[in-house]
Amino acid sequence: MTSIERLAKLATDLGETPFAELFPHPALVFGATFVDPETGRVETPSSCFSTSHSLEKKVRLESRTQVVMPLVKDLEEGPTPPSPSSLSTAPKAEGLAEVVFLEKTDRNPFAHMITVGRAMNNDVVLADSTVSKVHAYFTRTPGGWMLTDQHSTNGTYVEGKQLPDGGSAPLTDGVVVRFGADARATFFTPAQLYRFVARPRQETAG
């Protein structure tokens, strides 16, 4: 995971084209209070770190630990992430956020899917009790990015609407996605991520 502050500095230092070359994958931004880069409107999506159930509940994310499993069944039965290998924190101040890039790992053999779930062999691991072991997955199609629910227990949501069991929805920049009750993030393509992280610093500098 990458802090939004680090990305903002890189965006300012590099400019749009080098930034997009350095970060070519779409991203999920967790826990952000931000100004929409197109409208200037302040948005405050719910954070996967602090939840509606308890502000003291900790949600951990991990996207680097190497665990390889051969089958979907094995994914669903895989272990949950141990505490030492995952981030466990609540936002320290309004506006802080963390970024998870949607890039394929070698933790499972499904080359066309970027899997999300509680098991360690997902590409994006969300250590939260309301997230299924294999909760959902992202795919890239000729028409753009899609999010598909993998028959999760507590549902996958796009812009507050629950996907049908096993159903899919297209994603556009700035949509809020949710996995289970607590893990909520905003989806950005690389170009829009640059605008999102660069604008606040540019406005402050001005």
Give structural attributes.
single chain; 206 residues; 7-stranded mixed β-sheet; 19% helix; 28% strand; globular
What is the topological layout?
Layout (H helix, E strand, L loop, with lengths): L1 E2 H11 L1 H7 L4 E4 L3 E2 L6 E2 L16 E3 L9 H5 L10 E2 L9 E4 L12 E4 L6 E4 L8 E6 L2 E6 L6 E3 L2 E2 L5 E3 L5 E4 L3 E6 L1 H16 L1
In short:
With 206 residues, the protein is an alpha+beta fold.
Verbal overview:
By secondary structure, the protein is α+β, with helices and mostly antiparallel strands. The protein has four helices and 16 strands. The strands form three sheets. It has a seven-stranded antiparallel β-sheet. β15 and β16 form a beta hairpin. α1 crosses α4. The two termini are 29 Å apart. The relative contact order is 0.21. About 30% of the residues have low confidence.
- Helix-strand string: EHHEEEEHEEEEEEEEEEEH
Which strands sit side by side, in order, in the main sheet? 1-7-2-16-15-12-13
Biggest sheet record: 7 strands, antiparallel
Computed CA radius of gyration, to the nearest angstrom: 16 Å
How does the helix and strand content classify structurally? alpha+beta
CA(first)-CA(last) distance: 29 Å
**Continuous helix count:** 4
The overall pLDDT, averaged over residues, is: 75
* Strand segment count: 16
What would the principal axes of the Cα set say about the shape?
Answer: globular
| Helix content class | 10-25%
Low-confidence stretches: 33-38, 40-60, 62-95
Beta content comes to: 25-35%
